[in-house]
Every structure is written in C-alpha cells, then in structure tokens.
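Tutorial handout. Part one gives the primary structure; part two gives the three-dimensional structure as tokens.
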Amino acid sequence: MKFIIVAIATLLALPGLAFAQQPLAPKVKVLATPEDPRQKTILVGRSEATGMIIQFEIEPATTMVMPMGAPPKLIEHAPAAGEVYHLEVKPVDPRSKTRISYAAVTFEATNRDNGKTLKGELHPMWGSSGLHYALNSTLAGDGAYDLVITVQPPNFSRSIKDKDLFTIPATARFHFRLKGGALIEVSEPMVPG
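Part two.
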C-alpha cells in the first residue's frame, strides 16, 4: 500500500516538475513609439534561466567575418537577400558579469499571426558589444512573435566550487511584435540590466 501511495504522489508531482522547468512566459511591454531594429540596436528582453542571464537584441544586419577551413581563413559573409535583422544573444554569468563562451545557442521564432516558424543556431561572434551569439535573419514578416532561446551547457572546464554551474540547458522565452518592420512590442526585462 505504501508503494502505491508513493507512486501516485510521484505521478502527481511530475506535471508540476515539468511546468517548473518551462521558461516563464514574458510580460509584454508596448513601446511608446515604434523602434526600427534595421536602424539601431533594440533590447527585446532579458531573462534569468538556469542560473544565467539571457539577453536578446535585434539590430541591423551586418557582414560577419568567419574562420573557415584548416588553417582557418577569414571569409566575409554579407547578409543574404532579405536578411535585414541581426539577432543577437548575450548569455551572462550574473555573479562575475562575464559573457558565457563555448556554448551552442539556438533559437525558434514563431510568428503567431502567419504561423511561420524559423529555427537556427546562432554563431559565436565578437563585435562592438563584445562576445555574443548572432545570426542575420529575414524573420517571418510583421506580426507577434514567440521566441525561445536555448543555451546549451558550455564546454569549458570549471573549478571545483563552480562544477555545478551551467551544466544543463538554459532556455528563455521572449515576445516581440513587428509592424512595418519596426518593433512596437517587446518583452518586459525580467531581470535588471
């Protein structure tokens, strides 16, 4: 009988555990005036996830210089036709205020108005804002977007006291709305900047 009670309690707890691991839905912040990410960098949101801060911005698309081959040769990759946005993710350790390197960062953006979904991996990049993960994109037209950013555990060594940091994927959700290519809604930052 005790086994059955424990089993039932465990089953009842599972949906709660699954819910607790889901990233929180962002609160919507309506911008006082539209802001055009094709002209300047716009903060879409900042969220805490599994002990790290994940910041998401959209800015004008840019030519990226990437190492290719062995020995590496620097190759310029200009934005493709229609790629007017540069999606930028900055994962940060809140204790040291250091950007987290050596991680695989992916995104999935769904335009709720037209049902189109974009997925991809953001490349590690160095730029005027320091280390970040980025990708040029067309996005999927005007509309309200649900965006999920996932930062996989980085593959760097850790000290003994930090052995449990960043060992599971960190996932954050963001919201933004485009109208005429400009942002009119973003996520209310869940943590201070």
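Part three, for discussion. Residues 3-20 have pLDDT under 50 and may be disordered. The helical segments are 2-21.
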